[in-house]
Amino acid sequence: MPRLARQKSYDSIFHVMVKSIVEAPLFKDDDDKVKFMDFVKKAQNQFEFKVYSYCLMDNHAHFIIDANGADISKIMHFINYKYAMYYNKRHERIGHLFHDRFKSLIVDSDRYLFALTAYV
């Protein structure tokens, strides 16, 4: 069965979620979290998107991102690829770090944005 196509819009706000595989936490320590956010900042410089809110947990992360004209898939590929390469090198491992593709939902109302901000 094929994957569902990702909803895309270049001028939308997205709820983005990433999750690690069961065998490895996404962040082993605060240094990993700092490095992940460094990659987010580098991606912001390249793609000019906005991050309204985020939450980094041990095995997953949530973001509220305003794509601001950029492709959300390219943004997340940049961040996840660079972080996985860093993580595998630092922790001397090989293989996948992320459980699956990132998940993204378009924030289509002010009410949803308000509730999501409280959640994240």
| Helix content estimate | 25-40%
Biggest β-sheet: count, sense, barrel? 4 strands, antiparallel
How much is the radius of gyration in Å?
14 Å
Q: How many angstroms separate the termini?
A: 32 Å
What percentage of amino acids are in beta strands?
15-25%
Shape: globular
- Please tell me the total number of domains: 1
As for the CATH topology, it is Alpha-Beta Plaits
CATH architectural name: 2-Layer Sandwich
In total, the number of strands is 4
Count up the helices. Answer: 3
- pLDDT below 50 for ≥5 consecutive residues: which ranges? none
Q: Which CATH top level class fits?
A: Alpha Beta
CATH superfamily: Transposase IS200-like
Strand order of the largest sheet: 2-3-1-4
Can you walk me through this structure?
- One of its GO terms (molecular function) is transposase activity.
- Pfam families: Y1_Tnp (PF01797).
- It comes from Caloramator quimbayensis.
- This protein is an alpha+beta fold and 120 residues long.
- It has a single domain, classed as Alpha-Beta Plaits, CATH 3.30.70.
- Helix content is 39%, strand content 22%.
- It is built from three helices and four strands, in the order βαββαβα.
- A four-stranded antiparallel β-sheet has the order 2-3-1-4.
List the helices and strands and how they pair.
Blueprint lengths: L12 E7 L10 H18 L2 E7 L3 E7 L5 H19 L12 E5 L2 H10 L1
Antiparallel strand pairs: 1-3, 1-4, 2-3
Task: Briefly say what this structure is.
It contains three helices and four strands. By secondary structure, the protein is α+β, with helices and mostly antiparallel strands.
